[in-house]
């Protein structure tokens, strides 16, 4: 049996990771640790995804109870203040959760014999990357507190990785796709939601920035690969771009694709917008060569159609969804007002 602790499991990605692990093998024992900030943000779910876990712990990663690591074989670290707008408004919290707490928990995990530690990092570390697809060996240029926090976490984790403590930092492309805890503050999900609810796609930039995407199901496959990775030829520490070369798009290309799949939705572009320096194309050759059957499988058109169907079936009709809890910044603001964070 393999005992896995998923830290930050009650967000957008966690429920899909749980499904991937439990549906793929019968020898996983899964436990979760989460503060529960987004636990109520269920979308079209008939029950709590966490009921199928062996245990669910509640707490703040900044005050992590190290004793729950005893007997754990692998740790997946998903906990994060997880995009640029949230990182800008909650910069100190971003550093504390994304970097400091991650590193402290990793050290505690190593002390207690955990074998694999997997960090959900981000391709946003490439920042102003230009049009040439970035490889793991290329220079990074983080432009936000969120991206900087991921860089610092990677650097810290490298200092403690060894043949007995295998660390994998997966630099994920921008997440998308349906989830029991859907987020609409992600570019593809935003475009699909506005197309369904407003019959229009609004591009806030000039449409030229480049973004790679990855379905949350494919993220989950990559994370499963990470918790089972063995150290070969000194790869006890590995930073890896996680995504698919087929899923690199400009913002305008992505909007056009959503419009086409959903029947010709109107697209508006903010031609007066200042240039968005956050533009990067990413090379995923190394991931695809290493991950084997755990490489990306999802189809972009099917992703759009399934997400649109999910929104329609849910009955969600809040056109101004930017004020809803499907935008995670709104949740953080509410929790701050209640002194929970």
UniProtKB/TrEMBL annotation:
Per the record, the domain of life is Bacteria
| Record's protein name | SDR family oxidoreductase
Q: What is an example of a Pfam family matching this protein?
A: Epimerase
Q: Which residues form the NAD-dependent epimerase/dehydratase domain?
A: 4-236
């Amino acid at each position: 049996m393999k005992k896995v602790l998923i830290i930050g499991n009650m967000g957008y990605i966690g429920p899909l990771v749980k499904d991937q692990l439990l549906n793929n093998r019968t020898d996983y024992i899964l436990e979760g640790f989460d503060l529960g900030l987004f636990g109520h943000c269920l979308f079209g779910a008939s029950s709590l995804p966490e009921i199928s876990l062996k245990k669910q712990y509640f707490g703040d990663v900044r005050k992590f109870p190290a004793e729950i690591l005893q007997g754990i074989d692998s740790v997946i670290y998903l906990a994060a203040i997880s995009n640029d707008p949230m990182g800008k408004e909650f910069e100190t919290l971003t550093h504390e959760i994304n970097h400091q707490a991650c590193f402290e928990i990793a050290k505690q995990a190593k002390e207690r014999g955990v074998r694999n530690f997997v960090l959900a990092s981000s391709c946003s570390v490439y920042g102003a990357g230009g049009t040439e697809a970035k490889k793991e060996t290329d220079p990074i240029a983080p432009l936000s507190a969120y991206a900087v926090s991921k860089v610092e976490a990677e650097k810290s984790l490298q200092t403690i990785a060894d043949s007995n403590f295998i660390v994998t930092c997966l630099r994920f492309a921008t997440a998308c796709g349906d989830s029991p805890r859907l987020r609409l503050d992600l570019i593809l999900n935003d475009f699909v939601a506005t197309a369904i609810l407003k019959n229009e796609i609004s591009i806030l930039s000039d449409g030229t920035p480049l973004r790679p995407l990855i379905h949350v199901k494919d993220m989950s496959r990559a994370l499963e690969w990470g918790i089972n990775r063995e150290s070969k030829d000194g790869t006890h520490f590995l930073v890896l771009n996680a995504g698919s070369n087929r899923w690199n798009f400009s913002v305008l290309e992505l909007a056009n694709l959503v419009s086409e799949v959903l029947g010709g939705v109107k697209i508006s572009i903010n031609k007066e917008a200042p240039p968005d320096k956050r533009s990067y194309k990413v090379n995923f050759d190394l991931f695809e060569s290493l991950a084997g059957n755990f490489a990306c499988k999802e189809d972009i058109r099917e992703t759009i159609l399934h997400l649109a169907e999910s929104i329609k079936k849910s009955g969600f009709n809040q056109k101004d969804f930017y004020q809803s809890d499907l935008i995670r910044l709104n949740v953080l603001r509410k929790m701050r007002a209640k002194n929970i964070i």
